[in-house]
Structures are given as C-alpha cells and as structure tokens.
Design a protein that fits this description.
Order of helices and strands: HHHEEEE
Number of domains: 1
Strand order of the largest sheet: 1-2-3-4
Helix content: 40-55%
Largest sheet: 4 strands, antiparallel
C-alpha cells in the first residue's frame, strides 16, 4: 500500500500547456451570463409591483366601504343637509374632496384624492305631503393630479322629509 502512494507522489509531471484567455472571450461570457440572469430579477419585481397595486386597491375598497357606511349613518341621523338630498336639480359637483393616505406598512404609503357626490335619482311626493327621494352616494378615488379614476364606489338609500 505504501508503495502505491509513493508511486503516485513520485509520478513525473507532464508539461501542461497554459491557455491564455482573451479579453473578448471574457466579455462575451459576462454578457451571456448577464442576459440570462435578467429574467430572474425582472419577473419577480413586476409580480411584486402588481401585488402591491392589488393590495392598495383592496385597502382602498375597504376605506370606500367604510365611507359609504358613514354616509348612510349620516343620512339616517339627518346630518346631511336637506338641500343636497331634496334639491331642485341634480348635483354634479362633489360635496367633499379629501386627500387620504393609504398605509400598508410604514414604508408603503400612497396618497389618493377622494371625491364624495350626493345626488338624488328619483323624488316622489305622496298624498300625505311626504317627499321621498332615492339618494345616490358616489365615491371616486384617484391619484393626485391624475385624470383617471382608480376606484369608484356607489350606493343608494331612501330619504324622507315631511313638507
């Protein structure tokens, strides 16, 4: 056994040829590796951006539902002005315009512009002098200084007033 290791250690070394790398070969290899690696970074990043947008839209929908619930509560408590509900013409201007901030985490915050519209769709005067109106609540959310609407939420309710 010892003889075997001595033969391996004492084997004559053959002359090895050295291959020199050309700079062009190295650059080509680097370019191929970088082209092949791009999809591994691009697609997960795009997927993460879509997920964040979806999460912000879901949070915005939750905020819109809370706002609609608040508007319904104000209508039933009669804290919305009757001039808005029982107006002669339909309103086209928003009654409220707010800037809201949606936070998912401390570093993930987006600001949106919220517009609240309160109009009526139908009004009916009954024989016992009670005016009934179908009130239409509409919320619009968009990014500040942008034209397109990101989310629009709508709801209807009935309001009555004795004349």
């Amino acid at each position: 056994m010892l003889l075997f290791f001595q033969k391996i250690v004492n084997m004559p070394k053959t002359a090895s040829k050295k291959h020199s790398f050309v700079l062009l070969e190295i650059l080509i290899a680097f370019a191929l590796v970088s082209i092949a690696i791009l999809p591994f970074f691009r697609y997960p990043f795009q997927h993460m951006q879509k997920e964040l947008s979806t999460l912000f839209e879901m949070e915005l929908e939750r905020i819109a539902q809370n706002k609609l619930t608040e508007l319904h509560t104000q209508l039933f408590q009669k804290s919305i002005a009757e001039q808005l509900i029982f107006a002669d013409g339909r309103q086209t201007k928003p009654i409220e315009t707010n800037r809201i901030s949606v936070d998912l985490a401390p570093n993930f915050t987006r600001t949106y512009e919220e517009k609240v519209f309160v109009t009526w769709e139908r009004q009916k005067l009954s024989n016992d002098r009670i005016m009934t109106a179908l009130v239409y609540f509409k919320l619009q959310y968009r990014k500040p200084n942008k034209r397109w609407i990101i989310l629009q939420a709508e709801s209807k309710a009935v309001a009555q007033k004795k004349i």
